[in-house]
Amino acid sequence: MTQKEALDILKTGRSVFLTGAAGSGKTYVLREYIEYLKGLDANIGITASTGIAATHMGGITIHSWSGIGIKDHLSKSEIQEIAEKKHVVKKIAKTSVLIIDEISMLHHFRLDFIDKIIRTIKNSTEPFGGMQVIFCGDFFQLPPVSKVGDPEAYFVYHSDTWKNLNLKVCYLSEQHRQNDLVYLKILNAIRDSSVSEDIIKILKTRFNKKPIVEPTKLYSHNRNVNAENESELAKISGRTFEYEMQTRGNHNLVETLKKSCLAPETLELKEGAKVMFIKNNFEEGYVNGTLGVVIKCGFEQIQVKTLVGKIIDVARESWRIEEDGKIKAEIIQYPLRLAWAITVHKSQGMSLDTAEIDLSKSFERGMGYVALSRVRSLEGLFLKGLNEMALMVNEEVLEFDNKFKDLSKTNSFHIKTMGETKLNKMHQDFADKIKGEKPKEKKLDTVSETKKMLDEGISTKDIAKERGLKLGTILDHIEKIKEADPKYNIYNLQNSISKTKFKEIYNAFHKIGVSEGEKYKLAPVKELLGPKYSYDDLRLVRLFL
């Protein structure tokens, strides 16, 4: 099925299981559909089974969203208790579309809990209270994790809820990540359980290859990763620079973001450190998993040279939890982490340029495919060993996957042969059903209006333009906001001025100095720097002193 066909099915309002191999474009389709829904002002629940996947989508975990937490057992009275919590009721009652990403890692019994809570709140006998539900993921990827003593965990397709939903399966068949056809053939052979001697021979050509650039090592456990990264960083001489994470919003949600996000609270770097980008930014030329080396560190300045030789001036990025278009929590940090090693779990959703993997160790069925599918190409793969189990997949998953392919082919045929008039009417009917009304906003005072726009991530120049005010007036407002709340986070405003300018002005203020308890004065700095910087430039930088 193509991405367009999947989007056409989603827009009809049917509940969908969106699947496909790594690199088939599942996340792209989700993002496109989310943007479409936002254009309708529909109420969407954007969730995932894990914190890492949730932050990639700008959402929260399904456990947090539904109120179930990490409980393994819920009695009728406990389900009723959750369904009476005001914040849960408020959220679920108005939701018309629920998205759950990385569905393979959600326990079957938890999906049934979530369904019961939603039906209780919506007072409905329909699965998920009649809302559209989109499950996204690939059952060949990571399975539900259970600790000793936990109830036995099965994939969600064993749940009663899955069986009752009558899902439309959209199995994406195009490949958008793997440009290496030989490697794609290998991954598909593992996935289809058709690994031949020829495939094994090709994989064995990657034994003990000497890489030009040191690859990232994939480990199963955090302790190995931390030890490797700390050891390698210590080998580099020179100063260690520390970059602290900035936060704002609800404390509990901020803590959730911290745990979910791959960005460290304190990013420790040296020039020469191996790093990977942990967010997509196509305009700047990097994606989640792009590798590079730090070539410059300084005050609010990091420069990275990627493996293909592109030099990137790295800016801080934001990870947010939003609800009804409002930012509930936000963390701001450079989108980097040390990359000598990473766990297989944390590499979820990444596309690594190079990776070193040891498949000789006791891999479970399917884990070999999970690890290998993180790498872009055969040339970027460095194997330390290989065993037969590593190339096997879960037979049950293979059986269900073949069923999903058949169902998807049928759905693809139906959507292709459906007349355009009928399809457009189905799209319009569902859009009318879920279309939200924009609430009438209370008129804010002028400073609060500026703060509201800052909270939405709008630049100072754009705020001034949109409000028909001078930039100086907007800076007046920001100064008042900072006086009222010195901890108010304005790090995004650094993007309003070049890093070189910022650094020069910042250093000039420190050179001139200030008496204790007084405010930094603009005139002496203006005199020192001359006409090349405006007073507005100086005022903007002064906000960070």
UniProtKB/TrEMBL annotation:
This is AAA+ ATPase domain-containing protein. The keyword DNA damage applies. Keywords: ATP-binding, DNA damage, DNA repair, DNA-binding, Helicase, Hydrolase, Isomerase, Nucleotide-binding. Gene3D superfamilies: 2.30.30.940, ATP-dependent DNA helicase RecQ, P-loop containing nucleotide triphosphate hydrolases. It comes from the Bacteria. It comes from Candidatus Zambryskibacteria bacterium RIFCSPLOWO2_01_FULL_35_19. PANTHER family: ATP-DEPENDENT DNA HELICASE. Pfam families: HTH_40 (PF14493), PIF1 (PF05970), Pif1_2B_dom (PF21530). The keyword Nucleotide-binding applies. One of its GO terms (molecular function) is DNA helicase activity. Residues 12-145 form the AAA+ ATPase domain. CDD domains: DEXSc_Pif1_like, SF1_C_RecD. GO terms for biological process: DNA repair; telomere maintenance.
